[in-house]
Amino acid sequence: MRKILRAACRKTFSKTLGPMAILAAVLVPAVAMALPNTTQMTCRQAATIVRAGGSAVLATSANTYDRYVISRAFCPADQINDPAWVPTRDNPRCFVGYTCYDPTRDLR
User: Fold this and answer.
1) CA angle, 10 as apex, 8 and 15 as ends, to 5°?
2) In whole angstroms, how far apart are CA 49 and each of 9, 58, 74, 108?
3) SS3 letters for the chain?
4) Which UniProt keywords apply (predicted)?
5) Backbone φ, ψ for residue 43 (5° rounding)
């Protein structure tokens, strides 16, 4: 009876818990990685992050984030750029660059 129970437990672990444990190990570090929050930096710091890489994902509050770019070259071909201002520690409307915008989105 014990052999049957052990075999059943091993089978359950290998088919369900094993893959779930691996998935959790992969996802937890990604969730723990925090985005740069613009409200905790100066306007110059936020704009520099975007300029340094051409694009950056920045948090503008605890639950809000967006991708900001320095030019249309960093947007998909079917999108245009739209000026973006974010709140920072020293400026409630800091220009950091642009967001990519689908001009046909509102027509759907």
Assistant:
1) 95
2) 50, 9, 15, 34
3) CHHHHHHHHHHHHHHHHHHHHHHHHHHHHHHHCCCCEHHHCCHHHHHHHHHHHCEEEEECCCCCEEEEECCHHHCCCCCEEEEEEECCCCCCCEEEEEEEECCCHHHC
4) Signal
5) -60, -45
Q: How far apart are CA 33 and CA 11, in angstroms?
A: 34
Please tell me the pTM assigned to this model: 0.67
CB 84 within 8 A of CB 101: no
* Domain layout of the chain by residue ranges: 1-33, 38-107
Q: Could you report the per-residue pLDDT of 44-100, keeping only the tens digit for each?
A: 999 999 999 999 999 999 899 999 999 999 999 999 999 999 999 999 999 999 999
